[in-house]
């Protein structure tokens, strides 16, 4: 009997020493983490709710100075030729109508010859048509002869008109050619006031028709091209005031939103075009700018800035599902003011009642990473 009691006591003693501590993390649902009461106290977790504040929607954006397409010009030849002379270098300032280069070719001579011959043939055809018309009124010639004269007249008239336009494209005066002045050299002139950005040729090089010989830009009206994230588009509209600074410059310059792009780029950004309020001829296209797009204050929901943390290049926060269970949620964010960051919760959460971790978010994120590694 004593032996049986002794064995029972030993069994009870072994059973009492086999107790195990509860695990630190008891949940393994993706993007969720569960803590014990002790862990929550140790991490100093605090929760709060979104609050509505009047916040100024000043968006910070980066960009560059650029020129509109209509202020960028490629100067080429309608008919190829050899570059005879030019005094320009990259960066040279040019004025509208200024001679950029002299180009020569035997094709220019041939074109002028063709024009003189066409004018001569047209003069003859016109006189013959007028004569045949007069004879037709007197019923002297056949109708077929009149029609043939009219055909010849119209044919040469069209050819003269076409050749005349070709001469105009080459800046050759048709009137001079009609007087017998034939040249093998033409002048290539600037269509705008601006600067030379590129020269594609050297003396003696043959320049094919249509190949740009000079690239020109008009920098008088540079605009500011900014990159804005897709999530910030609702806060941008035409007419907004923009203040921007150049790299290594503290002075703020002013501009105004003129055009909002309608294409979202692969990196989820949109191009915003702004006009400067005061042009500066010293500015150069391609300069980096940092800008603030200002707008009227709005009523927006926000949370303490420390509630939003960065995880895998995303803005995230933790929503408390209960006292000890939390869910990692990706959120869209807006500007911050007085320590309060504008956030937009996913639709599955009620923005008015959701409890958000405002202290201890980094601790939760660290525990979640450790949980995933385990």
Describe how the helices and strands are arranged:
Elements (H helix, E strand, L loop, with lengths): L1 H15 L15 E3 L2 H7 L2 E3 L2 E5 L3 E8 L5 E4 L5 E5 L7 E2 L4 E6 L1 H32 L5 H27 L4 H5 L6 E5 L4 E6 L6 E2 L6 E4 L5 E7 L11 E6 L6 E8 L8 E8 L11 E6 L4 E7 L4 E3 L2 E7 L4 E6 L1 E6 L2 E5 L11 E4 L1 H13 L1
Antiparallel strand pairs: 1-21, 2-24, 3-18, 4-13, 4-17, 5-12, 6-8, 6-11, 7-10, 8-9, 10-12, 13-16, 14-15, 14-17, 15-16, 18-23, 19-20, 20-21, 22-23
Helix pairs in contact: 3-4
Q: Could you provide a short overview of the structure?
A:
With 374 residues, the chain is α+β, with helices and mostly antiparallel strands. The protein has helices at 2-16, 37-43, 106-137, 143-169, 174-178, 361-373, and strands spanning 32-34, 46-48, 51-55, 59-66, 72-75, 81-85, 93-94, 99-104, 185-189, 194-199, 206-207, 214-217, 223-229, 241-246, 253-260, 269-276, 288-293, 298-304, 309-311, 314-320, 325-330, 332-337, 340-344, 356-359.
Please tally the β strands and state the result: 24
- H/E element order: HEHEEEEEEEHHHEEEEEEEEEEEEEEEEH
Biggest sheet features: 6 strands, antiparallel, barrel
Count of individual domains: 4
Q: Order of strands across the biggest sheet?
A: 4-13-16-15-14-17
Low-confidence segments: 1-27
Please give a structural write-up:
This protein is an alpha+beta fold. It has 4 domains: 32-55 and 298-373, conserved putative lor/sdh protein from methanococcus maripaludis s2 fold; 59-67 and 220-293, Elongation Factor Tu (Ef-tu), domain 3 (Beta Barrel), CATH 2.40.30.170; 71-105 and 184-218, OB fold (Dihydrolipoamide Acetyltransferase, E2P), CATH 2.40.50; 108-168, Orthogonal Bundle (Helix Hairpins), CATH 1.10.287. The protein has helices spanning 2-16, 37-43, 106-137, 143-169, 174-178, 361-373; strands at residues 32-34, 46-48, 51-55, 59-66, 72-75, 81-85, 93-94, 99-104, 185-189, 194-199, 206-207, 214-217, 223-229, 241-246, 253-260, 269-276, 288-293, 298-304, 309-311, 314-320, 325-330, 332-337, 340-344, 356-359. The strands form 6 sheets. Strands 4-13-16-15-14-17 form a 6-stranded antiparallel beta barrel. It has a 4-stranded antiparallel beta sheet with strand order 1-21-20-19, with helices on one face. Strands 3-18-23-22 form a 4-stranded antiparallel beta sheet, with no helix packed on it. Strand 14 (241-246) and strand 15 (253-260) form a beta hairpin.
């Amino acid at each position: 009997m004593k032996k049986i009691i002794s064995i029972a006591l030993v069994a009870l003693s072994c059973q009492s020493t086999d107790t195990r501590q509860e695990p630190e993390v008891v949940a393994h649902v993706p993007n969720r983490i569960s803590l014990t009461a002790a862990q929550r106290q140790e991490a100093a977790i605090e929760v709060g709710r979104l609050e509505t504040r009047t916040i100024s929607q000043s968006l910070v954006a980066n960009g560059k100075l650029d020129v509109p397409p209509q202020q960028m010009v490629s100067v080429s030849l309608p008919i190829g030729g050899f570059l005879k002379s030019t005094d320009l270098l990259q960066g040279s300032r040019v004025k509208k109508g200024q001679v950029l280069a002299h180009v020569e070719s035997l094709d220019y001579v041939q074109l002028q010859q063709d024009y003189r011959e066409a004018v001569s043939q047209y003069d003859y055809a016109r006189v013959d048509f007028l004569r045949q018309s007069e004879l037709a009124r007197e019923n002297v010639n056949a109708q077929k002869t009149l029609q043939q004269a009219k055909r010849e007249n119209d044919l040469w008239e069209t050819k003269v008109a076409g050749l005349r336009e070709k001469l105009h494209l080459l800046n050759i005066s048709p009137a001079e050619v009609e007087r017998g002045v034939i040249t093998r050299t033409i002048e290539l002139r600037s269509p705008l006031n601006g600067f030379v950005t590129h020269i594609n040729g050297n003396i003696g090089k043959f320049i094919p028709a249509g190949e740009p010989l000079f690239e020109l830009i008009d920098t008088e009206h540079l605009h500011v091209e900014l990159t804005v994230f897709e999530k910030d588009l609702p806060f941008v509209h035409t007419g907004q005031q923009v203040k921007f600074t150049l790299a290594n410059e503290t002075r703020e310059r002013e501009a105004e939103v003129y055009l909002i792009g309608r294409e979202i780029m692969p990196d989820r950004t949109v191009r915003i075009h702004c006009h400067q309020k005061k042009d500066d001829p010293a500015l150069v296209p391609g300069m980096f700018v940092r800008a603030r797009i200002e707008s009227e204050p709005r009523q927006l929901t926000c949370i303490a800035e420390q509630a939003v943390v960065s995880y895998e290049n995303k803005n995230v926060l933790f929503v408390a599902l209960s006292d000890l269970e939390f869910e990692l949620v990706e959120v869209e964010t807006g500007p911050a003011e007085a320590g309060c960051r504008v956030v937009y919760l996913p639709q599955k959460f009620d923005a008015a009642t959701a409890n958000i971790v405002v202290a201890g978010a980094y601790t939760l994120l660290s525990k979640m990473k450790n949980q995933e590694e385990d």
